Each structure stands twice: as structure tokens, then as C-alpha cells.
Amino acid sequence: MSKRAIITGVTGQDGSYLAELLLSKGYEVVGAVRRASAPNFWRIQHLLDRITIKPADLLDQLSIIRLVEEVRPHELYNLAAMSFVPASWDQPMLTGEFNAQGVTRVLEAIRHVDPSIRLYQASSSEMFGKVRQVPQNELTPFYPRSPYGVSKVFAHYITVNYRESYDLFAVSGMLFNHESPRRGLEFVTRKVTEGVARIKLGRADKLSLGNLDASRDWGFAGDYVKAMWLMLQQDRPDDYVIATGISHSVRDLVQVAFGHAGLDWQKYIKTDSTLIRPAEVEHLIGDSSKARSELGWGPSVDFPGLIRMMVDADLERVAAAPQSADRLSTL
Ligand code: NAP
Ligand code: G4F
Predict the structure, then answer these.
(1) Strands 219-220, 118-124: pairing kind
(2) Fewer CB atoms near the end CB (10 Å): N or C, the chain?
(3) How far apart are the first and last CA of the chain?
(4) What is the Cα–Cα distance from 229 to 20, expressed in whole angstroms?
(5) Which domains are seen in the chain, by residue range?
């Protein structure tokens, strides 16, 4: 009998890669989407004949209960969230409703409909924020630096609490930054790789960025969704850090991306103080030894390989797009 899984956030970067992975393993996949006035399926267009789409919104408890009752999944991957850190200062209340209480709603739905459903909760290295320890592992204390980070700390602890209170198989994956050609355009890796493609093809002549000194432990999203699946296949639920163990600065990112296109980045990059965050996470680097030994997980794409993959995909995409489709503003 094939397993059934619900993915919330299936229209997002990770949701699309996870849906591909689960389909390749013979799962029946149900993607939960919130209502929009127009479909937002560009990342899962190629999967629409193989997955089922059902409506649900993290703000609406009944919609989640209905979804879980109808599908009766074996596994539920809760990837839906407001995931862009700067937006969390603009909309802190909504961020808390989506990312913190939204998770409580999912846990409540599982508890009431079928407590045997296994839950993956998408936690984040943003919880480590102003880091208390280098590198960060499962025992590193949290010090979030944004409403987004704070909301994810709540989500992490409510997941742990429901596991301990109600004996649920609920796990929290503390994933460091992971990227791909499907990354949203506002995140720094994709902003840079798309910017490089536009400059190379004569569609732009500059790229504005904020803090070039911040550094992140960047990996490939396709590798990270494998870790999510592995966490739900274990004998007992536990929490894991997922990271490459190597950190690079935004400046390194810019050098690799422009260099791959044969461009001198210093001619094109402008710094813009409005892109500096009210409180920054300066340096993240993860220690994923536990996941490597217990899950047998490891990354397959290194940082230069990831950035080259993204630049190549953006060069192809921008070249194929009409000029009228160019973005009107730089985020
Ligand atoms: P993403 O591309 O921004 O996708 C977010 C998804 O959440 C989208 O499908 C979005 O739907 C959905 N969503 C947002 N609010 C919702 C609501 N109220 N109800 C239902 N769905 C809603 O994010 P991602 O990069 O794939 O990340 C997936 C998860 O991992 C997120 O929880 C993120 O916070 C977390 N995470 C990501 C990283 C990373 O580096 N990528 C690292 C650690 C943790 P729409 O298409 O309708 O907007
Ligand atoms: O790409 P970012 O926006 O990602 P950030 O803030 O690290 O968050 C991402 O990773 C988290 C995991 O740690 C996820 F939980 C979260 O959902 C999201 O996926 O920014 C990375 C760094 C920051 O230090 C930022 O200040 O890049 C710096 N940066 C410099 N210039 C910029 C820019 N970031 C953006 N988005 N845009 C810039 O122009």
C-alpha cells in the first residue's frame, strides 16, 4: 500500500522538491494551497497531473482539520510559512499567526483527527540568530533576531511540546539556508544570480544589495528535502540540524556568481542602506553531525556548484523571457 503525504507550502521552493521526492518514492501526494486570485503553480506545473491539490490556510483551523480528515495522511510536512525575514518586521502579527499559531493549528488537527500521523515542522537556523556557539548544533541556545526568528522558535517549541505532551511523532528540522533555481527572487542568492543574468544579457546595469559581510551556510534545496523525509522514517521522533558545515559571505556569493558569467562584480554592485536589517544575523554555520550519523544524510552540491547552477538557470530563463517581462523594481 502506498503512503499518503500532505505538504503544506507545496507551491514554495521546498514544497516542489519534496513533492518530486515523495512521488519518486511511490507516495500519494496532496499539496495544500491557500486561495489566490490567480494560480501560483510555476514551481509545481510539471507535477500537477501527479499530485492532488486541496485548499487549506494556516490561518483557518477548520480548513486544516477538514484537509487532514479527508486525506488521512501517514505523514504531514508543514512547510507553509511567511518565509522572508525582512517582511516579518513589516507584518509581525501576521508572521506570528502564520508561522507560530499556524503550527499549533496543524498539531491540533493531527491530535484530534489521528495522532498516529507523523509531522515534519520546518524550523530554521534563524532561531540561532545572534549565535551563542560556533558552529550551531541541536543543543545551541536560541537567540532570534527578527519577528520571523521569534515565530520559528515558538513553532519549534510547540512541536516539541506536543510530542512530549501527547506522544505525537512530531519532529523539528532546523535547516540552514538552502537555495536552488526555484528560490524566490527576493532572497539574496537568487537576487544575485538573476541580477547577474540580467546584467550579462544587457537587461540591467547594476545590482543593489545590503550587508555584504553577512555569512550563511548555504546548501542545495534538493538535498535538504531528503533530510525532511529521512526524519519521518526513523523509529523515534527527534530534532536535527541540517547544514553543509561551510559558511560564505554575501561578498563571496557575489564573486562566484559574477565570476561564473565572466563579469567583474565591483563594476555592478551598489550598496543600499535601506536593505540593511534592523537587527542582523551576522554569521551562521551549522554542525549536522547528528543527522549525518543517525540519518545517513549529507549534502551532494557544494557552494560554488550551487551558485553556478543558479546562474546558468537564470541566464537561460532571462534569455528566453521577453523584455516586457523584466522586473520593474529591484527588491
Ligand atoms: P517559500 O518558497 O517562501 O514557500 C512558502 C510556502 O508557504 C508557499 O507555498 C506559500 O504559499 C505557503 N504559505 C504561506 N502562508 C501560507 C498560509 N497562510 N497558508 C497556507 N500556505 C501558506 O519557502 P521555502 O524556502 O520553500 O521554505 C519552506 C519552509 O521552510 C518555510 O516554513 C520556511 O520558513 C522554512 N525554512 C526555509 C529555509 C530556506 O533556506 N529555504 C531554511 C529554514 C527554514 P503561496 O505560494 O500561496 O505564497
Ligand atoms: O537570503 P536572505 O534573505 O535569507 P535569510 O534572511 O538568511 O533567511 C532565509 O534563510 C533562513 C534560514 O536561516 C530561513 F529560515 C528563511 O525563511 C529564509 O529562507 O538573506 C541572507 C543574508 C542576510 O544576512 C541579509 O542581510 O543576505 C543579506 N543580504 C545582503 N543584501 C541580503 C541583501 N538579503 C536580501 N534578501 N536582499 C539583499 O539585497
Answers:
(1) unpaired
(2) N
(3) 46
(4) 12
(5) 4-178+219-242 (3.40.50.720), 184-217+246-284+301-320 (3.90.25.10)
What is the distance, to the nearest Å, from the Cα of residue 172 to the centroid of all Cα atoms in its chain? 13
Per residue in 80-109, pLDDT (tens digit) is 999 999 999 999 999 999 999 999 999 999
Find residue 178's DSSP bridge partners. 219
Report CA(264)–ligand 1 centroid distance (Å). Answer: 33
Lookup: cell for 142:
536560541
Kindly provide the b/e burial profile for residues 184-202, where b requires at least 16 CB atoms within 10 angstroms of the residue's own CB: eeebbbbbbbbbbbbbbbe
**CA dist., res. 120 & res. 232, Å (int):** 7
Please name the helix (run of DSSP H) or strand (run of DSSP E) that holds residue 284, with its range, or none.
Answer: none
Instruction: Read off the pTM.
Output: 0.98
Q: What is the pLDDT of residues 213-225, one digit of tens each?
A: 999 999 999 999 9
Q: What is the structure's pLDDT at 324?
A: 61
The burial of 104, by beta-carbon neighbours within 10 Å (0-12 exposed, 13-18 middle, 19 or more buried), is given as middle
Ligand 2 pocket by Cβ (under 6 Å): 83, 85, 124-126, 176-177, 186-188, 191, 209-211, 214, 216, 250, 275, 277, 280-281
CA of 73 to the centre of ligand 2 (A): 33
Is 164 among the residues known to form the active site?
A: no
Buried b (16+ CB within 10 A) or exposed e, 144-183: bbbbbbbbbbbbbbbbbebbeeeebbbbbbbbbbbbbbbb
